[in-house]
Design a protein that fits this description.
Layout (H helix, E strand, L loop, with lengths): L1 E4 L4 H9 L3 E4 L4 H10 L3 E4 L2 H9 L4 E3 L5 H12 L20 E3 L10 H6 L3 E3 L6 E2 L4 H14 L2
Bound molecules: zinc ion (ZN).
């Protein structure tokens, strides 16, 4: 699914990218966000009710995000757009730049991650655009918890 996300929802943008969605995130003016939504057929996600109403009046796809926590926001989107709350690395996008990540042989990241990380993990992915290396490290416990909480509140 394709989204454009307003400047107040940067964390949500990163979550959606990790879950494999094509997300443009931008601090552009409202009129420019709307133009992107219409031109690229993206759903505009916003916490700005005026912008939401304006988008609807201009016949752009838009969704007003009400949740206060990340879990609430993810649950709202899952309910509205039938998004599955899981991260499949085969489809996952770089949370920083929205490019699809690719598996990378362990040997190739030897000098790009901490020694302890290299020793502990066997699977790595990289972003072909920005070069960021990813692995399912300790922070994944928190990621899974967040997704679980979001699913439970559905
Ligand atoms: Zn990237």
């Amino acid at each position: 699914m394709k989204f454009v996300v307003d400047g107040m929802l940067g964390t949500l943008a990163r979550w959606l990218r990790m879950m494999g969605h094509d997300v443009r995130y931008s601090t552009l003016e409202d009129s420019e966000l709307l133009a992107i939504a219409k031109k690229e057929h993206r759903i505009l996600l916003t916490r700005d009710f005026e912008l939401y109403q304006h988008a609807v009046s201009r016949e752009a796809d838009a969704f007003y995000v009400e949740g206060q926590t990340q879990e609430e926001r993810l649950a709202e989107l899952a309910a509205r757009f039938a998004i599955s709350l899981r991260i499949d690395m085969a489809a996952s996008r770089c949370p920083k730049c929205n490019t699809q990540v690719q598996p990378v042989p362990k040997e190739e990241v030897a000098n790009r991650v901490e020694k302890s990380t290299f020793e502990h993990y066997t699977e790595f992915w990289e972003c072909p655009k920005c070069g960021q290396v990813y692995w399912q490290g300790a922070h994944w416990t928190r990621i899974r918890e967040t997704l679980k909480t979001a699913k439970q509140s559905l």
